[in-house]
């Protein structure tokens, strides 16, 4: 355990934090007690000097002062008069981060790089306990692993109830800038501009949703179409619980294993070309496909999601042919969709459900599946978010939604998180990370890293799969034609 007594003295102690409370919304509880995991691998300097772990810890605490919700404790309704879930920050009893260190023995970063940072090569020292298992159930955890070459990896965990992926990357950016400034300007504390200052107050969400209530017609459309589909699928989930148990008994228990897949730059280019050949459009020409579907743009993320969803759906059709449904769950950032500032750091990763039958998905091309995904994303309007949050506030609805993540329902759903500006943001003053990983923390689930800068390296996709589903996917010709790295 890093000695924290010295860290918390000086200019960034308790006196810079005041008593605060933050509301927790229904969307926060879709994540339960899960932690978000991120790992940064940093190589050492040419002279093989150890990287400055004390500076990393010092800057971490300074950054947390600007994000006080990370110092709080989750307080349940039964402990409060107002009967609401809150995160309470007490300056006289702060919930400090859990900070630990370990050595990876003879493991080197060069060796990990040769193996494409496969989890099989990660040292046991890299394993980090869940925050809910630690004393005081801290909001944030940092585990520093030292390598024989002098490099380090930073394994971070944050409670998903209080923050989502886009929010935590704002925190990482602040942390890295402070760490960088400590080495360059020891006596200067960076100050955020008003437009860049983090926002935490959950009431800003409600205010934005209330402003969407004026779109009465839009709400009716959302209720009649998409919300009916969401309710139908949630009702289906309760019915499928029994079917899932029966399927497990019929096909045998299959253990979960973590797999890392990669799409090389050439494979991604091939995928984009496959789409462009079908959906290419310009002012002079609009393809029949675009005319039919009304969508001329799909992102790389849409296409990768389509490949994975299609492959897993085909595998599930084999292991459970009686179930006709397949579902993709996307972590959709709704900040800009409901006019919330991008500086909002709370949990606004909206669980967007995309549903089809297996027959429908089998009759489509990759581009058509990606277009279906993009269509659902584009239709995530403020009115729909408002109504969906209202639906999720019902305890039974939330239980059904959470059950979609249960391993017994693996053949029904998948969860995808992507789109963080990692490489462009993280610079702690001793070089940018050699590799950044997002270990998949949902079962079943994907965790996709899409670089936001031009890259010749592979895009890695972390997936938790049942063995029988994995074996079928390995023989899937469409899947293997694009996915060319398997760790």
UniProtKB/TrEMBL annotation:
It comes from the Eukaryota. InterPro entries: CAT-like_dom_sf, Sec_Metabolite_Acyltrans. Keywords: Transferase. Gene3D superfamilies: Chloramphenicol acetyltransferase-like domain. One of its GO terms (molecular function) is transferase activity. Pfam families: Transferase (PF02458). This is Uncharacterized protein. It comes from Coemansia asiatica.
